[in-house]
Amino acid sequence: MTPLDNVADLRDTDLNDVELDRRLASTWATPKGVWGALSTVDHKIIGRRYIITAFVFLALGGILSLAMRLQLAQPEARFIGPDRYNQIFTMHGTNMMFLFAVPVMEAMAVYLVPLMVGTRNIAFPRLNAFSYWMYLAGGLLLWIAFAIDTGPDVGWFADVPLSGPQYAAGKRADIWAQMITFTEVSALAVAVELVVTVFKQRAPGMSLDQIPLFVWSMLVTSFLIIMAMPAIMIASTALILDRLVGTQFFNPAEGGDVLLWQHLFWFFGHPEVYIIFLPAVGMVSTIVATFTRRPVFGYLGMVMALIATGILAFGLWVHHMFVAGLPRLGESFFTASSMAIAIPAGLQIFCWLATIWAGRPVFKTPFLFVIGFMVIFVIGGMTGVMVASVPFDTQVHDTYFVVAHFHYVLVGGAVFPLLGAIYYWFPKITGRMMNETIGRWAFGLIFTGFNLTFFPMHILGLQGMPRRIYTYQPEMPWSGLNMFVSLSAVILAAGFLLFFIDAIRSALSGPVAPANPWCASTLEWATSSPPPAYNFSRMPVVGSLEPLVDNSGALPVASGLFVDRRELVVTSVVGALPEARESSPGDSIWPLWSALATTVLLIWSIFTPWAVVWGSVPLAIALTGWFWPKGTKEDDA
Amino acid sequence: MKQTIVLDLSKLPPHGLGTASLTWWGTLAFMLIEGTGFALAIAVYLYLMSLAPQWPLHAPAPDLLAGTVLTLLLIASLFPNILVARWAKAQDLRKVRIGLIVMSLLGIAPLIVRVFEFPAMHINWDQNAYGSIVWVMLGLHTTHILTDLIDTLVLTALMFSRHGDNPRRYGDISDNAMYWNFVVATWLPMYICLYWVPRL
Questions:
Q1: What is the domain extent for residue B111?
Q2: Which burial class, exposed, middle or buried, applies to B163 when counting CB atoms under 10 A from its CB (0-12, 13-18, 19+)?
């Protein structure tokens, strides 16, 4: 007990640094124990959980792909039967898109964006906790269903009529459609949190032209999520209704239309590609700037390219439907818009090249992954321009050429930057460094393994091998290359295994990381590694794009905040001028109860529409419990 | 990292109001999500219409009475709603309490009228795609009336509790009022689509 304990409304100005840290820790820290873990709203703990969960799903999805490669290594193999194979390729795609790629990018943002904009927690931290539980529940739903032989088997885009009531008996397609609801609810929640965090919680002085490029990319991504995901929610809801209560949305006999499904799905599905790719672009810009020791060339151009990509993303969806028999004029328009996306993409590539050219590159592991990204993504982009052309696409549609193309774009465009980002931010998140030597080996194996696995698939596609076949006859000219691809997949898997081993080993016993091991310039490196629960003991004040480079002596900060309630600064949207000292909600168990109530409602409603009625009662109770004030200091105003 | 204090924030208000409120922006973002949903529902309606040989499909045009009464009711509810927002801004507890009770009743009333709208469509959800989309559109909008009503009821209870007289609650009330404006505004294109497009 010190004399200060009796002071009401204690502020940071009254305290020395040691005392300030101690008091902020007691205000912000997550209590130990199971209850603390279940009710925490710390964006770093939730972000870490999100990242780990997403990587577990990556590993599971990777195991499925190895199973497929084992089956396809030779003609007429008997390792997996057709029904199981259908489930496996559907699970692989669904898992990688909805449970890995989108969540992992949002997860990185949940952890990093509040630190990079210099605030103490994400906006709506309880919604953030809720979103994680929803994501976890959706992932468990999909994988438990698969474990009991009820995994979806209709492809990751679940085209009707295959997924409709006539051809997909049982509950497999419903599991897919409802898993969509889970992951979209969680993705939309995080998108809202990120938009508000970036708009309103930036450090004083961080005007729009001083926002780090990764934060810009997540802002644009969040708007893409907000605009695109309602389409898949409507589509999957309509599918469930068709299957459960006999609506006729996709039944041509009663005025419905099967192409309506494809329009709705791809109106979401194409922006989805950019929802995965744009965060990766932000990661690349961050890593390039740090490892070339200079800001990225053409900041304004980079931001404009992000926004242009985001807008164009909504004008491309029909290129997934070129063989569906749409009017010629429409197809030409979508060919043009699909090719136009190469302009902002190319602009960014050239800006990075200019940055590397003008900088002093340091070839550490994160930067190696960025170089790998550039090579692979450019190849994927070039086959992208090829399949944007209707006559070419008609030839290779549904062949391994397309499989090769989208793995080049998605793995090259998103997974390589992500792995670089993990090596880059690992010290910040865990407080320990990853191993540089193992990192180089992992990069070498993944880069080599990836190209040897997926490049031959272009050729297999041109030779006419369709995707999604569980086996092929020995007379087909595909067996040699398939064996080669399967063996190469082992190299790729070995690279990932090495990465996982390195990550786990380093988290446990890697060398302790300093606050800023890479001499980077953005705010997350201004605080300790890992950051304390309150992120910054005083709120940083920003006056440039590279706050840590331009203030190498001392960090300019603001004072005057309460220390006995969770408090942060709200600033204006454009100039980031301080507007209020706002409280940030404390830990709460109610997001977990709400997520459980939602889970019961959603899974139950696969079986009966009445679940929506009865299931909403506990949900309403949980939400009321969530919002009802508890008389804490955070509720004061 | 060493710190130099360059800015004093102690004079700032301890809670942001209006555009300085995080929940205001959050509500706006959720309105954008749901607005996109409504727009897509209308797009599906028009898409199905463009494919159909005649529209409405195997049904007469909907009866106008229930839908029009509901529309007028919703528009009328905007006036007390705007007043509640104004009183919340002035932090007038007594008037806000009265206003919330009125708005609760004005949330229940359209739900009663809505019950008559479904049969006024003269088609069931499972008869054909026209029936499916009109039921889903009505259902989607009903969900929004319902959620806002529950929100209003909880807020009403809150304002009669010891937590009521707090600038944060007044902010919640203006956000809730803004959301009700959104529920009304999204209905208007839906109303035109459901009741007048089939009469074109």
A1: 21-199
A2: middle
- Is the N-terminal amide bond of B56 cis, ω within 30° of 0? yes
User: In this structure, is residue B67 part of a structural domain?
Assistant: yes
Measuring CA to CA, which residue among A498, A484, A483 is closest to residue A447?
A: A498
CA pair distance A281, A370, nearest whole angstrom: 10
Residues contacting residue A237 through CB under 8 Å, at least 6 positions apart: A177, A181, B136
Q: Per-domain residue ranges for chain A?
A: 34-520+587-624
pTM: 0.96
Residues 6+ apart with CB under 8 A from A234: A264, B37, B40, B41, B44
Measured between alpha carbons, how far is A528 from A517 in angstroms, rounded to an integer?
11
- Report the complex ipTM: 0.95
Task: List pLDDT tens digits, range A82-118.
Answer: 999 999 999 999 999 999 999 999 999 999 999 999 9
> Tokens 């900088």, residue?
A359
For the record, the structure tokens of A474 come out as: 């020995």
B42 CA to chain A: closest CA distance, Å? 11
Q: In B, which residues are within 8 Å of A256 by CB distance?
A: 48, 128-129, 132
**Closest residue, chain B, to A620 (C-alpha):** B150
Site from B21, B25, B55 to mutate, A interface, most A CB atoms within 10 angstroms:
B25
Domain annotation covers residue B14: no
Query: Residue A231 and residue B166: Cβ atoms within 8 Å?
Result: no
Nearest to B9 among A553, A558, A620 (CB): A558
Distance of residue B195 Cα from the nearest chain A Cα, in angstroms: 19
The helix or strand, by DSSP H or E, that contains position A569, with its residue range, turns out to be strand A567-571
Q: How far is B80 from chain A (nearest CA, A)?
A: 24
Could you tell me the pLDDT band of residue A1, with boundaries at 50, 70 and 90? very low
Q: Which residues of B touch A199 (CB under 8 A)?
A: 25
Is A248–B131 a contact, with Cβ atoms under 8 angstroms apart?
Answer: yes
Tokens of B74: 């919703």
CB A370 within 8 A of CB A288: yes
The Cα–Cα gap between A492 and A143 comes to 24
Residue A536: both structure tokens together:
């910054």
Cα torsion B85, B89, B93, B97 to 10°: value is 10
Q: Is the pLDDT of residue B1 over 80?
A: no
Nearest CA among A167, A251, A172, A160 for reference residue B125: A251
Measured distance CA(A203)–CA(B153) in Å, rounded: 37
Termini Cα distance of chain B: 69
Q: Closest-CA residue in chain B for A631?
A: B163
Give dist(CA A559, CA B114) in Å, integer: 54
Amino acid at A473: Q
Give the pLDDT confidence of B25-42 residue by residue, as tens digits. Answer: 999 999 999 999 999 999
> What CATH number is given for A34-520+587-624 in this structure?
1.20.210.10
Q: pLDDT tens-digit profile of A571-612?
A: 999 999 999 999 999 999 999 999 999 999 999 999 999 999
Task: With beta carbons under 8 A apart, name residues in chain A contacting B22.
Answer: 123-124, 196, 200-201, 570, 582
Q: Which amino acid is at A281?
A: V
Question: Which residues in B lie closer than 8 A to residue A257 (C-beta atoms)?
Answer: 47-48, 51, 129
| Domain count across chain B | 1
Do the chains contact at A248 and B13, CB–CB below 8 Å?
no
Yes or no, beta carbons of B47 and A631 under 8 Å apart: no
B5 in any annotated domain: no
Whether the predicted pLDDT of A183 surpasses 90: yes
Residues near A337 by beta carbon (within 8 Å), at least 6 away in sequence: A312, A315, A316
Order of strands, sheet of B3-8, starting from the edge strand that comes earlier in the sequence:
A539-540, A555-559, B3-8
In contact, A541 and A205? CB cutoff 8 Å: yes
Collect all residues of chain B within an 8 Å Cβ-Cβ radius of residue A231.
36, 40
